[in-house]
Amino acid sequence: MQTVNHWIGGKPVEGTSERFGPVYDPATGAQAKRVAFASVEEVDAAVVAAKVAFADWGSSSLAKRTAVLFRYRELVDAHREELAALITAEHGKVHSDALGEVARGLEIIELACGIPQHLKGELSTQVSTRVDVAALRQPVGVVAGITPFNFPAMVPLWMFPLAVACGNTFVLKPSEKVPSAALRLAELAAEAGLPEGVLNVVNGDKVAVDRLLTHPGIAAVSFVGSTPIARHVHATAGAHGKRVQALGGAKNHMVVLPDADLDLAADAAINAAYGSAGERCMAISVVVAVGETADPLIEKITERANALRIGPGADPTSEMGPLITREHRDKVASYVHGAAAQGARVVLDGTGYTVDGYEDGHWIGVSLLDGVTPEMDAYRDEIFGPVLSVVRVDSYEEGIALVNASPWGNGSAIFTRDGGAARRFQLEVEAGMVGVNVPIPVPVGYHSFGGWKDSLFGDHHIYGPEGIRFYTRGKVVTTRWPDPADGGINLGFPRNH
Length: 497
Ligand code: NAD
Description:
With about 500 residues, the chain is of the alpha/beta class. About 40% of the residues lie in helices and about 25% in strands. The model has no long low-confidence stretch (mean pLDDT about 100).
């Protein structure tokens, strides 16, 4: 069986810990590979490689860094199909969806190609007589990135291209469930000319993560994953003196007002709830149906849901693939069964779904729950599967109060033709990313991505301008070229004149 190893110091490194995890093909349910789990010593070796590389890379010219990034952009572009196939093989999502995630990752490499524009700094001349002040942004050092299973290529690409463009070196710990795409991205970076040690990949579990969070050689940690682990990462890395951005889970609401185009709203709800089998942090998991919209909307969603083609991600006719693991499939199914027991109306029950010829795959069909209330587990927890809950409310005010009472605040959307209501929602909703007639408002690469409340711990959103600030630290230089008149003894606090 193939073993997925590490990438340290610009080359593949075999794991020595004798600890491994299974990597499944979710469509067949069979174990396809095993992944080496790094020991503390192996993580330390990656941090040392990154630290050594930082000595040169941290002071390398912008011309040199961008030359590598432009080549990297071309290589990732040329390998879209291969990367998407790796994603589908281990994650299960359909090929077109996997291509979409590579495209969104490329956006961040493109942003990184323009890094000279973003690191220009600021200059104030003559702030005092013969005194100038310059503000610089410099790299922080060695950055660690820890990523989730649901975007095997895109989330790593949210992090390391920008971090290395800013002059940092990087240690990536991808999800152990889907390790191959990240490793391939590291190989391509080396092919593009990224010097050895600038980007390292250690595979593994909590042992590797906790070593990165406490390692004195790590300056900053970017994390994307579930809320409980984001909280742990933020607290532990923060306690060890690192800057941290830790993006967590979500429960994203889509408020549908009575004046909305219900066909467009139904299409949007289907795409955002069931795309990638609901395994997206920006998936819509709750439709908040205002007034009379619930019945016609549920009818339209049901009609569309019944026509969805669920099958292996590599089959071009499939629109939705399997879930990541059998355990996760069973957990998702338990929410559908639990919702029925707690009083919801199960309009669609996908829990018995299988695919002919792939009976051991991690299949589940789509589920739609009506009459869901905030006390139910299906409402309270992030299910992370193709289960859409409909909550009925009487008014906009009741809807926004419901959304804002959620502990999460990643994305939120409103569907309406009323500009005034949309504007009010943008200002009132407690979420980091808002869609107006857009169900998955993931910002483009040159804006920043991030949630509020339990969806993000730390001060910075990821990528875009906030990502650049996260991966750099400020320095302000005050300069005077003295004139003899500037001499003399004066113990007072310097004043500008
Ligand atoms: P996860 O939290 O289980 O794992 C994320 C990373 O943390 C992995 O690399 C994993 O190895 C590591 N990890 C897991 N348990 C750990 C522990 N006890 N100690 C230390 N490290 C640990 O998340 P997942 O299941 O891989 O991904 C799905 C979750 O990620 C969902 O909650 C989803 O909403 C969230 N997510 C959020 C965003 C966002 O931008 N906010 C984006 C994608 C996914």
